[in-house]
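Incident review: delayed structure delivery

Summary: a single-chain prediction request sat in the queue longer than the usual turnaround. Root cause was a stuck worker, restarted by the on-call engineer. No data loss occurred. The affected request and its eventual output are reproduced below so the record is complete for anyone auditing the incident later.

Affected input:
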Amino acid sequence: MGQFAFMIHPLDVESVTRQYSWAKILPERAIEAILGRLPPFKVSTITGIRSPYGEADGHFIVCPVTTRQFLRLPEETTVRRVVETGRLAERLGARVVGLGAFTAVVGDAGKTVAEQLDIAVTTGNSYTVATAIEGARNAVEYMGYNLSDVTLAVVGATGSIGRICVQMLADEVGDLVLVGRKEADLEALKEEITRSREISVGVSTDVARALPEADVIITVSSAADAIIEPEHLRPGAVVCDVARPRDVSERVASARDDVLVIEGGIVSVPGEPNWSLDIGTPRGTCMACMAETMILAMEERYENYTLGRDLTVDQVVEIERLAKHHGFSVTGFRAFDKQLSESDLRAIRKRGHENRRRMGLHVPSLDSAIAVEIDSGG
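Output delivered after worker restart:
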């Protein structure tokens, strides 16, 4: 049986106050100061992950550092805290540890952490890419669009996940917009993409200006707060939000009933998984980055897998193959912690198409959309 651990951390101070009543009476700085003194700890044991070809047990372990602390503290401090948490995984008997949320981003995306541990390390980003692309394709198909006709924007395009999403989808879409913080890095990626392809590629450091031109958006930034607001989206847009914390503001849920926002990277897990913890996904599911760690444990492949910021297509294809072999699969559409029903989806599609028509944008035929629904089992 494979043995693994998965590293999590409090996304914000509010997540601490929700979990611990004593924290509600303390100011934010006091809570962060307390977290700074806490050692890493195990929060639950994971059981029931099994397929006909392998099984695994594990642990959720907590690196007590908030997202804002990861962004504000010196890099050597946050890397040290992640390494300390990895050593807890070793003591618990794990043979591979997955780095979740900002523990996978800090420093050189896991390389230094792996060098200081005696067990395998992965960020889970390869399977995250695979599921994000599959989810986006499914949503595009549901809305009745052809990928070859759409403009795709990738927010966080020069990061490890964004870059490989761009590379894997550049041959399939009509136009491409790369969005990120540094224009020089965006221009370098544009040159790489256009060197061997005839495709229109735009670059932008301004989300508000870039996104209204996009039909499909994959967003994978490392921002601490939401960066995509209702006014940034055109009618009928598909937004696959892979970031944690989310890139898409919750205002979008209430203000834009004509766009399809989906949470990327959520998968069903084979067997009868028991997290002994609310991880924020439906029963029997988890984030793809967690699933990659489980897959490696089930395969007993105790080797560093996805590290650093240069992912490869081969890695993504391989982990996707192993996931399907064991019965991991992308779930239906889900947004803002809510599973979207068929009636929800139909209403979004209808309003999206109507508002696109008013703006003179391309609208798929109703016959095409209905055919997709039947084909997808809707």
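Verification: The chain has a mean pLDDT of 91.
Action items: add queue-age alerting; document worker restart procedure.
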